[in-house]
């Protein structure tokens, strides 16, 4: 699942999300309820380079194929550690389904945590599904997780993988058959219409056990070197916003706090490239999630203020 790598002299910023309406005019994206939209708070945290308290540790959980990407979450981990956070990237394997992966993740985090230690959980793509399932089934994680961040969460299905699996083109057939091997089958199924029916219903109606922040994105061109399928998605649904792997609507959870991010390809938040400072991105998201946890502790608080 390879595209190309490109660099950009101008650094990425979180502004101008709404530009997608000009580039992808067929996208059905109603304005986010102001009670749920945390984009402005995130933008302020980004520009002021704010960080969650050092007393909170950070757990990082990547998505599919991360075991073959050793630099995955590297920028985020370095940034968190530089700013005093204890940081742990959970081991993952694409060969496992969500339930099995979640049990392995829960075990790994439980062994890593110190007594009474609290953490912010930063997740990417399918890693967010794994983390949510683990949280729902672990009293320990519910007690210790101060908040969870989910970026480009595959709430809907991957049109890319499904198209690869039904395509008759030689190159697509090779990839499609590889995805059916034991090394990829269970993990890939979790982001397609073939996912566990229990999982599908649970994800669409999920009621989080801890404070949640999720982020969606769109991208106009391939800007990272992995998981970027712009031409295919344009062919499948022209003028609909996507991140190179998932259409934007398929990243959205109903009724949960959200951040809208412009010009981020699907693998870019964990691999970087094209002027993106991944450490700064995840630090600002973690800060925004921390503020969400503080808001929930004080229901009377009408607005979130930067500290």
Apparent shape: globular
Number of strands: 6
Q: Give the overall average pLDDT.
A: 88
Termini gap: 42 Å
Task: Name the poorly predicted regions.
Answer: 1-9, 300-307
The CATH C-level name is Alpha Beta
Structural summary, described in words:
It is globular and about 55 Å long. It has one domain: Rossmann fold, CATH 3.40.50. With 307 residues, it is α/β, with parallel strands linked by helices. It contains 13 helices and 6 strands. Strands 2-1-3-4-5-6 form a 6-stranded parallel β-sheet, sandwiched between helices. The model is unreliable at 1-9 and 300-307 (pLDDT under 50). Strand 5, helix 11 (230-236) and strand 6 (258-261) form a beta-alpha-beta unit. Helix 2 packs across helix 13 (278-297) and helix 7 (159-166) packs across helix 8 (170-178). It has helices at residues 20-23, 39-48, 74-82, 98-112, 126-136, 139-144, 159-166, 170-178, 185-189, 197-204, 230-236, 268-271, 278-297; strands at residues 57-61, 87-89, 119-124, 145-151, 212-217, 258-261.
Question: How do you describe this structure in short?
Answer:
It is built from 13 helices and six strands. By secondary structure, it is of the alpha/beta class. The chain is globular and about 55 Å long.
List the main descriptive attributes of the protein structure presented here.
307 residues; alpha/beta; Rossmann fold; six-stranded parallel β-sheet; 13 helices; disordered N terminus; disordered C terminus
Secondary-structure topology with pairs:
Layout: H1 20-23, H2 39-48, E1 57-61, H3 74-82, E2 87-89, H4 98-112, E3 119-124, H5 126-136, H6 139-144, E4 145-151, H7 159-166, H8 170-178, H9 185-189, H10 197-204, E5 212-217, H11 230-236, E6 258-261, H12 268-271, H13 278-297
Parallel strand pairs: 1-2, 1-3, 3-4, 4-5, 5-6
């Amino acid at each position: 699942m390879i595209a190309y790598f490109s660099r950009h002299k101008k650094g990425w910023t979180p502004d101008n999300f709404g530009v997608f309406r000009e580039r992808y005019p067929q996208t059905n994206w109603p304005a986010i309820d102001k009670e749920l939209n945390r984009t402005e708070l995130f933008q302020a945290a980004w520009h002021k380079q704010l960080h969650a308290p050092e007393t909170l540790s950070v757990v990082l959980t990547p998505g599919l194929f991360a075991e073959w990407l050793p630099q995955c979450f590297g920028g985020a981990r370095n940034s968190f550690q530089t700013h005093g956070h204890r940081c742990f990237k959970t081991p993952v394997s694409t060969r496992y389904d969500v339930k099995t992966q979640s049990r392995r993740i829960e075990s790994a985090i439980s062994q890593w945590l110190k007594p009474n230690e609290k953490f912010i959980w930063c997740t990417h793509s399918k890693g967010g599904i794994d983390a949510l399932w683990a949280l729902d089934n672990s009293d320990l994680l519910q007690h210790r997780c101060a908040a969870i961040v989910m970026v480009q969460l595959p709430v809907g299905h991957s049109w890319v993988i499904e198209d690869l699996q039904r395509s008759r083109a030689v190159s697509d057939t090779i990839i499609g058959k590889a995805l059916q091997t034991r090394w990829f089958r269970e993990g890939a199924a979790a982001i397609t219409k073939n996912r566990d029916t229990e999982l599908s219903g649970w994800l669409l109606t999920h009621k989080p056990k801890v404070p949640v922040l999720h982020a969606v994105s769109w991208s106009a061109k391939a800007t990272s070197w992995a998981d970027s399928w712009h031409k295919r998605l344009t062919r499948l649904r022209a003028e609909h916003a996507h991140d190179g792997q998932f259409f934007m609507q398929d990243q959205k959870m109903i009724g949960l706090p959200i951040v809208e991010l412009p010009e981020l390809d699907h693998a870019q938040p964990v691999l970087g490239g094209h002027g993106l400072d991944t450490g700064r991105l995840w630090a600002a998201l973690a800060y925004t999630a921390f503020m969400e946890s503080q808001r929930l502790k004080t229901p009377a608080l009408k607005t979130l203020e930067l500290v």
